[in-house]
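S., here's the first fold you wanted:
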Amino acid sequence: MLQVSKCIVSGNGLAAVLLKRAATVELDWDVRQKSRFSAVDSQGRELAVFLPRGQAVRGGDVLVAEDGSLIRVLAAPQKVLRITACVVHGTPFDLMRAAYHLGNRHVPIELQPDHLKIEPDHVLADMLRSMHMEVAQADLPFEPEGGAYGGHVTHDGHSHHHAHHHGNDHGHNH
C-alpha cells in the first residue's frame, strides 16, 4: 500500500505535463472531506492517505505519494439535488434566498451562478419546492463551499489567511 501524506492544492506550481501524466483517483465528497482514507488510483495502486487533520481534498488537488509519484484528484459524480430558480417566474434573488435558508441549516452547499447543489435530503427538497424552486436529482461532482471562517489550508496543512482591505481609509463605527 502506497502512503500519501501531502496534498498540493489545485496542483499549484506543477507543470502541466506532470499533471497530464499523473495517475488519477476519483473520490466523492464523503471521502474527500476526510483527512484519512484509502483508495485505489487509476494505475491500480492501493493508497493510504494520511493528511493533516481537518484538511479536505478537492477535485483538482494533487496528492504526493511517499515514492514521489503524483495522483490527481477528480471529484466523482454522486447523487445530489440540483436547485434552480423557477424558469417561469423565478429570479436570481430566489436562488440567493434558497442559499440563505440552506446556510441557516448548515447544509454543505455548492454555489454556482445559476444553480445550487446539496446532498439528497427529502425534507430540504420539500422546503425548496415550497419556495418555488426547481429541485432535480442528478449524478454530478459535488464541491461544497469550504466555509467563511476556515481560511485555506495549504499543502503542508497550515491555515492560510489573507488580510482584507477595502481600500478606503475610513472606519465602520455603528
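And the second, which I think is the more interesting of the pair:
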Amino acid sequence: MADPFTDRLTPRARDIVSAARALLEEEGPEALTMRRLGDRLGIRAPSLYKHFPDKAAVESELIALSLWETAEVLEAAEAADPGSVPALAEAYRRHALAHPHLYRLTTERPLPRAALPPGLEYRAAAPLLRACCGDEDLARAVWAFAHGMVVLQLNGRFPDGADLTKAWETGAAAFQPATADR
C-alpha cells in the first residue's frame, strides 16, 4: 500500500498535515487549531479551508498517517521475528510512547473509517492477526492489552519502580498462541 500521506494529498495539503503533526507532537491536542496551524504556516486560517473542509479532516489525515506508520513499525517487527506477539507488542509500545499525542488522537475516539484509505486499518492490524494465527478475537484481546498498557503508562498510572518491561513481556507472552510458528 502506498503512503496515504503522499498519494492522497496535494503538496500544499501535505505541508498542512506536516505542520499539524508538528504542532500536535510539540504542544498537544489543545494547540491543534486552525488558527494556530495557519500561524505556523504563515498564512491566515481561512486559507486552510481551501485544502481541508474543517479541523476534523486534518485530524483524519493525521490518523491515516499514524495508522500507516503503525503498519510500517509492526511489519518491520514481524519481518524481524515472524509470529512473535511479544515482538509486535514491544514495537507497538515503542511507537506509541514516542508519539503520545498522535497515539491519543488516533485511539481515543471513534475511528473515522470513511475518511481512511481503503485497506489501511486492516494493514495496521494484519501483522498481529497473522501472529495470532488468524484468530480475530485473540488479536483484539492482544490489542486491548497493548493499548491499555500504553494508556496507563502515558497517564502515569503505574507506581514508581514498577518494572513495565517485565509487565509487557509477561502480558505479551501470555497471548502468544501455542500453535504459532515459533
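Why I say that: The chain has a mean pLDDT of 94. Residues 21 and 62 are 7 Å apart (CA to CA).

Talk tomorrow,
H.
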